[in-house]
């Protein structure tokens, strides 16, 4: 134990960033925006004086949390100076200063905390989930979103998912006319009865149509309906919740603990999507989940448009947080990216994400892939 303490007291000497452009295999339409040819993320590598490395990823979306340019600038200009020269073990103090140093930019802060935890875990020889409270389970059920405007292509994807053992899908709605949403729900119910279906509007409904369309979708008895209207429509979210008989979940309305307080007080939802990117890191994500559970709400592990590196931070957070009980959406590395950036495939087997047991995040990014996709930015 003394040796581990001494090692973790070494200073952080390196802070390197890459702005990555990662090609995707299909278009995805969500209520508030689309992704076509590529996603953009920022990879961060911290280096300690011993040469040990820790990695993190900032994965923003301009219509939701922010831009990759803002994440890069926040990390390089504001968060790097408060990190270099600090002790590896001082992650809580570094993150507290990060929140004071720059407002918003939650993805950048998530990348920093993930890299700090990865660095600590690799030095101490333990998985990140151990640093976050220990593993509650060895695997997490996987949900894959259905969001291609070409529904025939999504039918092919669902056949692949069925063969792969995936049993949870989330239908993205609200980006086209309501008839298209209903037609897809009918086809899924007919052809894929083995799937648990969840529905996510991604803020896609206007106030005048929100209750009617949400009620119509609720007739298909999805496991839950997520964020029908804009994030700031708290009163309308509460009205929709009262109008339907399936659980209503909040995503964009709840970033961190501060929003969770208001969500509980105003009764806008029955559960919440917990994301390390929008929360500002794993520990704040855990706080959101525990606040939701204390209020009798459910939670699941959502993601942004991430590579496997961002997924790793998410799965370690989930396995250390039993309050997040509805599985995860860490599917992009396997089902959306043309190529992931990890040295080994992101671990999915039988429709579940397998929690890595190695030190730190358990899998490293491939340096050659990092350099290649940074050159595409």
Task: Provide a short characterization of the protein structure.
41% of the residues lie in helices and 19% in strands. It is of the alpha/beta class.
Q: Radius of gyration, rounded?
A: 20 Å
What's the average pLDDT? Answer: 96
Strand content: 15-25%
Q: Which CATH top level class of the largest domain fits?
A: Alpha Beta
- Uncertain runs with pLDDT below 50, 5 residues or more? 1-5
Element-level helix/strand string: HEEEEEHHHHEEHEHEHEHEHEHHEHHEEH
What general outline do the C-alpha atoms trace?
Answer: globular
Oligomer: single chain
Instruction: Give the fraction of residues assigned to helices.
Output: 40-55%
Number of domains: 2
Number of helices: 15
Describe this entry's structure for a reader:
The protein has 377 residues and is α/β, with parallel strands linked by helices. The chain has two domains: 2-126 and 368-374, Enolase-like, N-terminal domain (Enolase-like, domain 1, 2-Layer Sandwich); 131-363, Enolase-like C-terminal domain (TIM Barrel, Alpha-Beta Barrel). Helices cover 41% and strands 19% of the residues. The protein is built from 15 helices and 15 strands. The protein has helices at 2-8, 68-79, 91-101, 106-124, 128-131, 151-164, 178-191, 207-218, 234-243, 257-266, 276-279, 282-294, 308-319, 332-335, 367-374; strands spanning 12-23, 28-30, 33-35, 38-48, 53-58, 139-141, 143-146, 168-172, 196-200, 225-226, 248-250, 271-274, 298-301, 348-349, 352-354. The chain has a seven-stranded parallel beta sheet. A three-stranded antiparallel beta sheet has the order 1-4-5. Helix 2 crosses helix 4 and helix 10 runs parallel beside helix 12 (282-294). It is globular. The chain starts with a helix and ends with a helix. The model is unreliable at 1-5 (pLDDT under 50).
